[in-house]
């Protein structure tokens, strides 16, 4: 394949707070923690997430979000909340689509989806 996803980028105002939160949330390692950084890649075994200092306030928060899959939704929601996420809504309309919407420390929304490992993308 000639193209692949390299990273998802989140614009943010406080790069250090967001680096701490997302590094701990997804077990990622930042490319740098230099106070002068305007952009950081958080590296992981299977995923990269990038943070970019926004020069203007981010206003369209719902254009894109992350879906995080887990076998332990309740445990992960508790862990992420302890790291600084804020619960927004638990959606259970469809028994096969159970997810909790959380907001990170800068109010970017993301979902913690109850998706057993064997169900995700035909893997297992």
Structure, described:
There is one protein chain. The chain has helices at 15-26, 73-83, and strands at 8-12, 29-30, 39-43, 48-53, 66-70, 86-94, 97-103, 109-114. The chain has 124 residues and is an alpha/beta fold. The strands form two sheets. Strands 1-4-3-2 form a four-stranded mixed β-sheet, with helices on one face. It has a four-stranded mixed β-sheet with strand order 5-8-7-6, covered by helices on one side. Strand 2 and strand 3 (39-43) form a beta hairpin. The mean pLDDT is 86.
Quick tags:
four-stranded mixed beta sheet, alpha/beta, 124 residues, Signal recognition particle alu RNA binding heterodimer, srp9/1
Record the SSE blueprint.
Elements: E1 8-12, H1 15-26, E2 29-30, E3 39-43, E4 48-53, E5 66-70, H2 73-83, E6 86-94, E7 97-103, E8 109-114
Parallel strand pairs: 1-4, 5-8
Antiparallel strand pairs: 2-3, 3-4, 6-7, 7-8
